[in-house]
Amino acid sequence: MTGLAQLAIRPLTPQSSADYFAFFDGDAFADNPRWASCYCHCLWTSPDVKPWSEWTGPENRAAVAALIASGELMGYLAYVDNKPVGWCNATPKVKIPALREERDPDAALVGCIACFVIAKPFRRRGVARRLLEAACEGFRQQGLAFAEGYARRNAVTEGENHSGPLALYVSSGFTILREEDDGGVIVRRQL
Hints:
The chain is built from 4 helices and 7 strands. The chain is α+β, with helices and mostly antiparallel strands. It has a 7-stranded mixed beta sheet, sandwiched between helices. The chain starts with 6 loop residues before the first strand and ends with a strand. The model has no long low-confidence stretch (mean pLDDT about 90).
């Protein structure tokens, strides 16, 4: 396996959408096919349109293609040998429909780390950490003041850690902002 010394992190752009879809259509959920239809679209859907469980893979894929083309869905792809091996959804909070209803006076200053997807052979090798640092730097460059993540306190499986392990955030300078009754932990880091 290629060493991670050759890991490259690049922002998602309309021009790199083919890489994004190659990753999500292939390695992203090879070990978790139940989530293969998401395409990182769940936070953009409206329950007023239909419940999340009724969205199909092709519908999510088409919706995400439009979000990438318009610049609404943002994030970073990790590459080894020019092949995508990881993804981090890193989007300003005000662009994410599912988070707009949250009463947050700082929302316009917050970048959200909504999801990590790392191909199984590259997990626990520092890919998520590099993606997280790229996301924080990208938020800084956008003029945002905070990075926010959504961990699970009692996550057991890799799938349950899709929004990022709490230990990753804490070791990267994030502090706990709030704990939810369902085990969710909202963390934040000043940029």
